[in-house]
Design a protein that fits this description.
It is a single chain. This protein is of the alpha+beta class. It has three domains: about 90 residues, Ribosomal Protein S5, domain 2; about 40 residues; about 140 residues. It has eight helices and six strands. Strand 3, helix 1 and strand 4 form a beta-alpha-beta unit. It is rod-shaped.
């Protein structure tokens, strides 16, 4: 079962401390490359994120983004720094006396003074635990998405492989006709040059042997068959196979080019072109395979 490298997943978690959101995006890349963005207070989780991604994914450029929104109440009751509040009141009274009896500050003015009111900080350990758990769930969603996309790619590849097999069979079936046509052309050409029939046949056979060697495509067709079988076998593997499939596409192209150069026949040349179209369609999809 192949997997795509292109996917997106989103996971959320809520608690008394607030809420957090993980977003993970992955696209095709030659190797596994992980980028992590998160609040500074949770930066200690970065290595955990990289290790988990490295265990679950084989290839791709992976962007992991964590957003944290803290609860306004901090998960606890508001407390007042009474000592600081008393100091603010006394200082305000002294300033008022110095200014000839200015109005005293209201209780709301005192509460607004920095540090007078305090909110308990959220337990960072609890937030980290929630972040780690949500990351695992989100990464699992990403993997499931990559698997579904991989199934779609495989469903696209299989008919192309069948198309290649059909072309190989057609070329094999036509080769005797191609050689017969070549023989007839040689016979006609020699007939225009000489009236010695025995010489004509001898030269025809000599020319035909040399041309047959030059135009022999049996090895190319056999290798194309082998590449089709290997591609099917690779698609069944459980480990990442994108690089192997990419290599096979290069080999497919090599044989298709050689077949076209040896065709010496309009129909076979068209088959070689059709082969290249199918191979290119597969290659484009395989670029996204892990």
């Amino acid at each position: 079962m192949i997997k795509s490298m292109t996917a997106f997943a989103r996971g959320e978690s809520d608690g008394e401390w607030g809420s957090l959101v993980w977003e993970i995006r992955s696209v095709n890349h030659r190797y596994l490359e992980t980028f992590v963005r998160m609040p500074d207070e949770l930066r200690g989780l970065e290595q955990t994120v990289r290790n988990l991604v490295g265990k679950r994914l084989g290839r791709g450029k992976v962007e992991c983004t964590l957003r944290l929104k803290k609860s306004e109440g901090g998960g606890g009751e508001l407390t007042i720094n009474e000592a600081l509040a008393q100091q603010v009141i006394e200082a305000s009274d002294r300033i008022g006396q110095m200014m000839g009896g200015s109005p005293s500050p209201t209780p709301l003015d005192i509460l607004r003074w920095p540090g007078v009111t305090q909110q308990p900080e959220a337990d960072i350990g609890e937030v980290k635990q929630a972040a780690s758990s949500t990351l695992e769930n989100t990464l699992e969603q990403l993997i499931e998405t990559r698997q579904r996309e991989g199934e779609r790619i495989e469903a696209m590849l299989m008919p192309r492989l069948e198309g290649i097999e059909t072309i190989i069979a057609s070329v094999r079936q036509r080769r005797p006709q191609v050689l017969d046509a070549i023989r007839e052309k040689l016979r006609q050409r020699l007939a225009d040059l000489t009236e010695d029939v025995s010489l004509d046949e001898q030269r025809i056979e000599q020319e035909l042997v040399m041309l047959a060697q030059k135009l022999d495509v049996d090895e190319e067709l056999d290798r194309l068959d082998a590449h089709v079988a290997e591609t099917r076998a690779v698609l069944k593997r459980k480990e990442p196979v994108g690089r192997r499939l990419d290599f096979l596409m290069q080999e497919f192209n090599r044989e298709a080019n050689t077949l076209g150069s040896k065709a010496n026949d309009k129909e076979t040349t068209q088959h070689a072109v059709d082969l290249k179209v199918l191979i290119e369609q597969m290659r484009e999809q395989i670029q996204n395979v892990e």
